[in-house]
């Protein structure tokens, strides 16, 4: 049995069974904030919101900056003023051609880095900051998930309380609060799951590590629930223990994260009172037929 749920209309969530002949509507849980986000999580949420605003316009520059920083790190020696001054000294004459070429390359990279950072700064300083559909699509693509236009529209619809086609800080903040309080699995959560992954992915490498996840979860849910969530995300599907492989105790990509959180969301709904009521209704219809 499957359900279609998660559409919001006037602060209500619409749930339909797979026959599509009847819908059940209830008010979305937690529509009045009562559990504030912990300060650390609020800071990270704001970081991700800023990152997503005009993401499509920033994506190319951010990708190139990543390449530049990686190249400069491989050289492992930043170009300092003292190094520039030695170019006119006698010692400079003794430098090998390779070292001189490396220094020139570093100067070129630093110049390009400054230009790209200026472009990004101009985008970040736009007077109105919001997230557009193309920004959501570009962010998903950067995480390795190709989404259709309809899927992106549905994700935006989950958050777009003002129905103006873009998402501002207040809307993203409200959506996040609703989801961290949701215990029914009814709250529209696709956009939230993307944002939560990006919060966990503090170093922006497209992977979420156990260490990164534990850092954020402990303050919100405490040790016991944190360990349960960690096991679901990083353990095997059969419930076997976590295998600590990769960086920072183990890592997962967005595809794995998405698979787990969507499955848990559906499970939470099916175990809720409303989910059980829908299942019983379906069972009665099957019995009659």
TrEMBL record:
Biological source species: Stephanodiscus triporus
Name assigned to this protein: EF-hand domain-containing protein
Taxonomic superkingdom: Eukaryota
Pfam families for this protein: EF-hand_8
Region described as Disordered: spans on this chain: 270-289
Listed Basic and acidic residues bias regions: 270-281
EF-hand domain residues: 140-171
């Amino acid at each position: 049995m499957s359900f279609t749920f998660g559409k919001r209309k006037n602060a209500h969530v619409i749930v339909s069974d797979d026959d599509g002949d009847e819908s059940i509507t209830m008010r979305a849980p937690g529509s009045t904030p009562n559990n504030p986000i912990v300060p650390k999580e609020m800071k990270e949420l704001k970081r991700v919101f800023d990152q997503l605003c005009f993401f499509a316009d920033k994506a190319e520059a951010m990708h190139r900056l990543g390449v530049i920083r990686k190249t400069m790190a491989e050289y492992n020696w930043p170009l300092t003023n003292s190094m520039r001054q030695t170019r006119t000294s006698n010692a400079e004459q003794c430098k090998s051609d390779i070292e001189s070429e490396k220094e020139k390359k570093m100067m070129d990279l630093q110049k390009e880095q400054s230009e790209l950072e200026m472009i990004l700064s101009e985008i970040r300083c736009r007077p109105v900051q919001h997230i557009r559909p193309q920004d959501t699509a570009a962010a998903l693509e950067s995480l390795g998930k190709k989404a259709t236009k309809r899927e992106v529209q549905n994700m935006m619809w989950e958050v777009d309380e003002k129905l103006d086609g873009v998402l501002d800080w207040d809307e993203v903040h409200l959506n996040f609060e609703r989801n961290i309080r949701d215990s029914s699995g009814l709250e529209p959560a696709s956009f939230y799951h993307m944002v939560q992954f990006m919060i966990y992915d503090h170093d922006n490498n497209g992977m979420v590590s156990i260490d990164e996840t534990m850092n954020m979860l402990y303050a919100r849910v405490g040790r016991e629930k944190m360990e349960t969530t960690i096991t679901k995300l990083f353990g095997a599907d059969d419930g076997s223990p976590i295998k600590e492989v990769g960086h920072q105790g183990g890592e997962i990509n967005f595809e794995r994260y998405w698979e787990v959180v969507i499955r848990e969301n559906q499970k939470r709904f099916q175990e809720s009172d409303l989910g059980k009521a829908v299942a019983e209704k379906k069972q009665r219809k099957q019995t009659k037929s």
